[in-house]
Amino acid sequence: MGSNDLNGNRERWGSKFGFIMAAAGSAVGLGNLWKFPYLAGKNGGGAFVLMYILIVIFIGISLVMGEMVIGKATQLNAMGAYRKLSKKLTWVGGLGVLTAFIILSFYCIVGGWVISYLIKTLTGALSISDTEALGNIFGELVSNPLEPIIYGAIFMLITLLIVVAGIGEGIEKASKIMMPALFVMIIILSIRSVTLPGAAEGLRFLLYPDFSQFSGEGVLAALGQVFFSLSLGMGIMITYGSYLSEDANVPQASFYIPILDTLAALLAGLAILPAVFAFGFEPAQGPGLMFVTLPAVFSQMPAGVFFGFIFFALVFLAALTSSISLLEVCVTYVVDEWKWNRKKATWILAIAIFLVGIPASLSNGPWSHIAIFKGMGFFDTYDYITSYIFLPIGGFMSCILIGWLWGTDNALAEITNQGRIPFRYANAWSFLIKYVVPIAIAVIFITSITA
After folding, report:
1. What is the pTM of this model?
2. Are 65 and 251 in contact (CB under 8 A)?
3. How many domains does the structure of the chain reveal?
4. Which residue among 23, 163, 193, 241 has its CA within the 20 to 30 Å range from the CA of 206?
């Protein structure tokens, strides 16, 4: 698996399929499973879905390709890659590593909630249809001072064990199993959901474009969701791109990843909304939909424990494929820059990230009275700073690097492997990455911080 590049021993993805599964896995996460269906419902259903798909085509694919080619060209971690292409922007790569570090610190706590729910489903603790009682179960879990931290530690340990095994033996092997399993589960749930009596209302809610419910806010919501769902601006695509071989087909991979991510989001909508409507529940926002409404739906469904278990196993895999990519960004940085071996880097980073996550967990319980930023506790502060500040800055600056400093001609030479790989949309991509994408990101950024 080795190769003679800058470090003399950089690992490689073993196959195109393995790379695409790992990169798509980084993109398919908890946001696809609860945030997308909810946002679609709130913003005119099919109108939002249509806008989302257009943004994926014009902005998402361009940025995935841009970040991937930065990694492929430099064969370095996010910070090293920026330094190599433009010394002035070294800090942007550092910001990407920091973003991945902070996101994973609270993501592992949510991963812990999911493990707890997997166990609760199997023991029958969730086999009740009263949403108030289910709400109390969820509230007791997240506010408990110890339980979420223990489950979060288990989630982090599983993430660590995959990453410590390396790119080929760890991340690629795991992703080749987890991603197909994830899609099989989500398809089973979608079929079950759309065949429930009364499911048609939920299908209409998701797929029928209601432009009266769609506004500028809907466009921003779609733009933000594309950005965060595709793992852009946090160094993941740069890091994963750095393990690509010289002759890798970047345009092809850049199309597959957003397509699989969007497919997962649409299937999640089909798995969740028709079932929610069939049993007369409200498609409520955020974690409540996943941890309160859906268990109530499963409790009323024939073979509900089975489908409930499949759902939380699916959520667990989605969380895990994202967490391994976040940890890998940090590990690659430390291995490249500090010359630590992978084992030492992975263990020390995983422990450090987990410790930073403990206040995020406690802020839902014993520390809920502590406000850090804009009246928010640790958990919400971590989320807000990364999602609304760091990610847009990272994405915007990668456009500046590619479009204006390194130059789209150099980027295209790398994308096409000096003209050996056909890329019909070269001119369109250059225009998008120089003008359209940075302006779109600047609009989201300004709107979200002034909101």
Report:
1. 0.93
2. yes
3. 1
4. 23
The amino acid at 93: G
Task: Take residue 52 and report the two structure tokens written for it.
Answer: 């989302």
The answer to whether 337 touches 82, Cβ cutoff 8 Å, is: no
**b/e 243-277 (16+ beta carbons within 10 angstroms → b):** bbeeebbbbebbbbbbbbbbebbbbbbbbbbbbbb
Report the amino acid identity of residue 163.
V
Each residue's pLDDT tens digit in the chain (451 positions)?
333 334 457 899 999 999 999 999 999 998 888 789 888 878 888 889 999 999 999 899 999 999 999 999 999 999 999 999 999 999 999 999 999 999 999 999 999 999 999 999 999 899 888 888 999 999 999 999 999 999 999 999 999 999 999 999 999 999 999 999 999 999 999 999 999 888 998 898 888 888 887 888 888 888 888 987 898 889 999 999 999 998 899 999 999 999 999 999 999 999 988 988 888 887 766 677 889 888 988 988 888 899 999 999 999 999 999 999 999 999 999 999 999 999 999 999 999 999 999 999 999 999 999 999 889 999 999 988 998 889 989 999 999 999 999 999 999 999 999 989 999 999 999 999 999 999 989 988 888 778 7
**Which positions ≥6 away from 175 have C-beta within 8 Å?**
18, 21, 22, 25, 321, 324
Distance between CA 298 and CA 289 in Å, rounded? 12
- Decide: residue 345, CB within 10 A, 0-12 exposed, 13-18 middle, 19+ buried: buried
Do the Cβ atoms of 192 and 2 come closer than 8 Å?
no
Fill in the amino acid letter for 239. T
Which structural domain range is residue 179 located in? 20-450
Could you give the 3-state DSSP secondary structure of residue 128?
A: coil
In a domain, 5, yes or no: no
Q: Which residue in the block uniquely carries the two structure tokens 């409404």?
A: 293
Instruction: Confirm whether 15 is domain-assigned.
Output: no
Which amino acid belongs to residue 430? S
From CA 368, how far away is CA 379, in angstroms rounded?
10
For the chain, the first-to-last Cα distance in angstroms comes to 48
- Within a domain: 274: yes
Q: What is the DSSP letter of 373?
A: B
Give the relative orientation of helices 391-400 and 437-450 as an angle to the nearest 10 degrees. 150
Any domain includes 7: no
Task: State the sign of the Cα–Cα–Cα–Cα dihedral 208, 223, 212, 50.
Answer: negative
Coil vs helix vs strand at 365: coil
Rounded to an integer, what distance in angstroms lies between the CA atom of residue 46 and that of residue 294?
22
Q: Which residue has the tokens 């809610």?
A: 205
Q: Which residues touch 329 (CB under 8 Å, ≥6 apart)?
A: 77, 78, 96, 97, 100, 234, 235, 236, 239
* 391 CA to centre of own chain: 12
Which CATH number fits the domain that encloses residue 247?
1.10.4160.10
